[in-house]
Amino acid sequence: MASKAITYVWKFPRPTIEKAAMDLMGAAYQTAIKTDPNVTTVLIRFVLARNKEPYIEESNIHATTWKDGKLQKDDPHLTICAKNSIQEEAETHEAAHGYTVSLDDPTLVSVKPSDFVKRDDTIDKRGKVIWPGGLPAEVVMHTEP
Predict the structure, then answer these.
(1) At residue 25, what are phi and psi to the nearest 5 degrees?
(2) Beta strand pairing call for 39-44 and 2-10
(3) Bigger pLDDT: 52 vs 120
(4) Residue 121 gets which letter from DSSP?
């Protein structure tokens, strides 16, 4: 079995509960390799926690998505961006949703890649850079069959 090092980048605070962070990285890994088998780096994006005031941005599984310029209900998923070594140099990435069993169960059900590549400095619908530099990162080894 071969091992593969993946760098995980957290756009918003990493979950403080270690099991939750590891579960999220596991689902992010499965989403990323189904998006691009040559992935080297994964940005774990976020959810706007609408049930909290003020709205909180955090890295987690969520059930909303932007469609036609509006935040809409969706099945539970995590949102990632993935890069391979060529995209690392080009400062580009591809986004994907990894759909999960539920908000509390990170078991992956399906993956929906965006099927197009964007520049890291692309501005999202909230006026923020999708993949800004200087974010917290960690490397995790994954064993491949």
Answers:
(1) -65, -35
(2) parallel
(3) 120
(4) T
pLDDT tens for each residue of 125-138: 778 899 998 988 99
Q: How far apart are CA 106 and CA 78, in angstroms?
A: 9
> Cα separations (Å) of 4 from 92, 116, 143, 145?
21, 24, 6, 11
Q: Using H for helix, E for strand and C for coil, what is the string for 11-65? A: CCCCCCCHHHHHHHHHHHHHHHHHHCCCEEEEEECCEEECCCCCCEEECCCEEEE
Give the separation between CA 21 and CA 65, rounded to whole angstroms.
Answer: 21
| Token pair in block for residue 103 | 């908000």
Spatial contact of 31 and 108, defined as CB atoms under 8 Å apart? yes
Amino acid at residue number 4: K
